[in-house]
Design a protein that fits this description.
The protein is α+β, with helices and mostly antiparallel strands. α4 crosses α13 (432-442), α10 (339-353) runs antiparallel to α11 and α12 (422-428) packs across α14 (451-457). It contains 14 helices and 22 strands. β11 and β12 (172-176) form a beta hairpin. Among the domains are: 16-88, Uridine Diphospho-n-acetylenolpyruvylglucosamine Reductase, domain 2, CATH 3.30.43.10; 95-206, 2-Layer Sandwich (Uridine Diphospho-n-acetylenolpyruvylglucosamine Reductase, domain 3). It starts with 15 loop residues before the first strand and ends with a helix. It binds flavin-adenine dinucleotide. Flavin-adenine dinucleotide binds next to β6, α3 and β13.
């Protein structure tokens, strides 16, 4: 029996069960975190077991209804949108197996990263790299190519050793580097197009702490020393504040096992990460939304107010922080060597257009990998992410940056706003047609399809 959603979940009105069917029917409205996508799924299904997940896919296909899993809804794009059946995998969460010796950990698809990190820490294990937040599901994160930073580290999907998928006919398929290797190469960053992930087996590593060093810097110095810093630190990234020549650098480096933790004090963490990064930042954005002319001065003031800080903490606590100010984001993966030029061109666009942007531009790095639709496929990658406050218009800024990044062979993050289509994306991914061939074989009826997938992969 397919489980109904809990009554207490206000965002999900309790749906009606269609007699004689396992599909739950009712009008619900779903909105993603950024408010960029709304959907009215015809049905919402919350399976308790993998067997029920298989039944749900079979039932949807029998109804002629498309079906789409959704994670934490933190994609900015309509990649998770459906007006068919929406699969919520919150109940398929937790660690199934963990081997401390090998570091192999198998988790259910709906596991949230913060729960995973906590459980791993208590097992003496950790993820090798993480992004800026930890509220995503493991399946949603890998499906869009979610990444952190570090010249020798890949995105989260590179830590995947095996996947168990529910295919469009309801059957289960386990794939890894040796079994169904083509499906494995496609489904690790599968955009939700290949099958519904039921379990993920991750290669974890012994738990480790990171020494975090954050410091303000001049953008010119950051760019002059870029290679030395990217290669000389385990996890290096920086934020550039538009309309200024100033930046904030973050260097996170692994410390020897047994090193004593020196986390930020509660007050400092509250002031920096809650008050300044969220509460005050939101107020500043509200003010500058009304008076954009103030942005250059406010950005300059903000960079002067930034102070250096050093601390040592659990890796997951250093990687992730809370982001409560709502924004829109676009992020492009460009060849690493192109990063300085892309920033210079963004700066020139802002100066030329007079457009005012209060959000810093975030720059990160990743190793080349071999996952077909990974944005870092086959090349050392620099990520350039641009943001705009939720109450402000982002269109012209993002279009300009997209043009700049596309001209240097940039690939858009699958979960962040972009306007690219299949024809041009095919040029950027050597295995694009191999991916489409796996999709054609496993989901010829497009049971897992939606408009976004039609746009980026073709019909
Ligand atoms: C505040 C914020 C910060 C972010 N920081 C980063 C960052 O640091 N680095 C980065 O790379 N990205 C970042 N992102 C983007 C985010 O990591 C991705 O969009 C990610 O996909 C969101 O995970 P989710 O669980 O919300 O997935 P959703 O957005 O809910 O779903 C994404 C896709 O995964 C599919 N999916 C979900 N579950 C399954 C399943 N079981 N089987 C098959 N497909 C499935 C969905 O159908 C959909 O196509 C950020 C986003 C926000 C809003």
């Amino acid at each position: 029996m397919i489980a109904l959603l809990p009554h207490s979940d206000a965002a999900w009105p309790v749906p009606r069960v269609v007699p004689g069917s396992s599909i739950v029917d009712g009008m619900t409205t779903w909105t993603n975190w950024a408010g960029t996508v709304t959907a009215h799924p015809a049905a919402v299904i919350a399976p308790d077991t993998v067997d029920e997940l298989q039944q749900a896919v079979v039932a949807a296909a029998a109804h002629g209804t498309r079906i789409k899993p959704i994670g934490a809804g933190h994609s900015f794009t309509a990649i998770g949108q459906t007006d068919g059946a929406q699969l919520r995998l919150d109940r398929l969460a937790g660690i199934l197996r963990a081997d401390r010796e090998t570091g192999l950990v198998t988790v259910l698809a709906g596991t949230r990263l913060h729960d995973l990190n906590e459980a791993l820490w208590h097992l003496g294990l950790a993820m090798s790299n993480l992004g800026d937040i930890d509220v995503q599901t493991i399946s949603g994160a890998i499906s869009t190519g979610t990444h952190g930073t570090g010249a020798t580290f890949g995105g989260l999907a590179t830590q995947v050793q095996a996947l168990q998928l529910v295919l469009a006919d309801g059957s289960l398929l386990t794939c890894d580097a040796n079994n169904h290797a083509d499906v494995f190469a496609a489904a690790r960053v599968g955009l939700g197009a290949i099958g519904v992930i039921a379990t993920v087996t991750l290669q974890c590593e012994p738990a480790y702490a990171l020494a975090a060093a954050e410091a303000p810097a001049q953008l010119d110095d950051v760019l002059a020393d870029l290679d030395a810093n990217v290669d000389g630190n385990d996890h290096y990234k920086f934020f550039w504040f538009p309309h200024t020549r100033r930046a904030l650098t973050k260097r996170n480096n692994r410390v020897l096992p047994g090193t004593e933790l020196r986390p930020l004090g509660r007050l400092r963490r509250y002031v920096d990460d809650e008050l300044l990064a969220n509460t005050v930042f939101d107020a500043v954005n509200r003010l500058t939304t009304r008076r954009p002319a103030l942005i250059a001065r406010v950005n300059s003031l903000a960079t002067r107010a930034l102070s250096a800080r050093d601390y040592i903490d659990r890796s997951d606590r250093v990687f992730a922080s809370s982001r409560r100010v709502r924004f829109r984001e676009m992020e492009y993966a460009v060849p690493r060597a192109a990063v300085p030029d892309v920033l210079v061109q963004i700066q020139a666009y802002l100066a030329r257009s007079g457009e005012q942007v209060a959000f810093p531009v975030e720059v990160r790095f990743a190793a080349a990998d071999d996952i077909w639709l990974s944005t870092a496929y086959g090349r050392q990658t620099g990520y350039v992410a641009v943001h705009q406050y939720v109450r402000r218009e982002h269109g012209s800024y993002f279009r300009a940056v997209e043009q700049i990044a596309t001209a240097v062979g940039g690939r858009p993050h699958w979960g962040k706003l972009h306007a690219r289509e299949a024809a041009s994306l095919r040029e950027d991914y050597p295995h694009f047609d191999d991916f489409v061939a796996v999709r054609d074989k496993l989901d010829p009826q497009r049971v897992f399809g939606n408009e976004y997938l039609t746009r980026v992969l073709g019909s």
